[in-house]
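Question thread 4412

I'm putting together a teaching handout and wanted feedback from people who do this every day. The idea is simple: show students a protein as raw sequence, then show them the structure tokens that encode its fold, then repeat with a second protein so they can compare. Below is the first pair exactly as I plan to print it.
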Amino acid sequence: MCTGKCSRFVAVALYPLAVISIICNIVLFFPDGDVTYAKDGHITEEVKYMGGLIGGGVMVLLPALYIHLTGKQGCCGNRCGMFLSIAFAAVGVAGGLYSLIVAALGLQNGPLCKTVLIWTTPFKELTGDNNYLKNDKLWSLCTEPKNIVQFNLGLFGTLLATSCLQVILCAIQMINGLFGCLCGTCNKEVL
């Protein structure tokens, strides 16, 4: 596969991943589909870091647009364009890593929820067999919002998976960009 085609493949694969990251992060602001938790400040701390919106979203979407252009004949589909795609892909790697770290922390610390009378992160200090990820009986500690543990697990897990794929694809593009810079893009001009 030539470097231009590889760039198009990477970019097309990054588009839905960036959109999924943005949607997951936005949905995390509304546990139980209710805006009152966000208005009252009762959302998980890692959601406020906006790893999916900024890291896995914008910081991956902008490089994907440029990387897509390097796969086409024209101003960006040359050796210089491929060289710049290395820098853009590095931004994508940084964004994907930021999203990955925030999602991992969100999974490790668990959700902010109401336990009896106070809002707290009840699973933050639990380790070993008492970890809420291993023991679903602990999930009943959270009384409000309803099903918040499953909500956070699903969305932070999705962010974790998409950010891993983003990092891998952007790293592939960095290598592809290096080959394209050294060897050319092999884009043929059609007459």
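The second pair follows. I'd like the answer to focus on this one:
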Amino acid sequence: MHSKSRQILLRTPNSRRLQTLTFDPSQPLSLRDLKLSLIPDHGNPDTFYFTANGKLLVDDSIPVGSPQVPALSTLTLRHRLRGGGGDGGATGAESRDCYLKMYAEKKPDKIDPNEQRLSKWVNCALSYETLRQPCVMDRLGNVFNKEALVEALIGKKLPKAFNHIRGLKDMIDVKLEPIPGGESNNAWFQCPITGLEFNGTYKFFALRKCGHVLSAKALKEVKSKACLVCYREFEERDKVVINGSEEEVDALRERMEEERARVVKDKKQRKERSGDVVAAKGVADGDNKRFKAAAVAPANATKEVYASIFTSSKKKSDFRETYSCRSLPLGRN
């Protein structure tokens, strides 16, 4: 039985628009096979290379659908730039050892900053799958597919980079406005007010109270203390920048720590106030206890004798009933 078909997003040099490629995991498809099917006739496959979500792929034998190229990732085919002196010749003075030494040290994979930026806006920050509703955002402005994040929390599989997410209270449900007709300029969502694409070209904010995602341009041009979509009022601290710069993320992290410290302090104060109320109630209850004469007997008096002045001299156990007399305490017969 064949496995269920899966998809990846594909971009080629001849088309700036994303294409959808459907593949069957049970029938391996290598990057080289895919490359040969995409390049023009008589083209040299060595003059092209792939990147996946902005990361360079140096091995053409990698199969599509592998951990390096997971389903729903963005795969881009690019031209390889050639360098050199231009004459293509060699002086003969080069040593073979220098070339061996040059390639002996493994160099880190090059990452296209544009692809990396785009991936943060169109893919889930955790699973790297294409963003799809319902989506959530953490307090630092990272956007996730809600299902992927909840599953990671339940299975305790969150990476260290997201250890600030401790539970559902750290998620903000966000409402992304889909682009009518589908993808446009590598974006699937847009600002509901200005129509600007949600692809990293423009700055966007999410409002924590209602979850609507608006462009910075919309919030700047329309001065309002209420959401421009649902009209729910918000404060400046309710605005969370999405995929912000390092400085912006640091500011969000500082705000998050302050809010958590405030919550802990408020809980402690409520607990202390609750303890004071319980203690005061206990004192009040103690004042209303039944009076016992034996408890205030003079120093030289026997407690039982002193108490008998105010109560019956017989104990309840001393009262007995016979066939001719029903003995009851005074006031009860």
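Top answer:
Good format. For the second protein you could add a caption like this: Confidence is low (pLDDT under 50) at residues 84-89. The radius of gyration is 38 Å.
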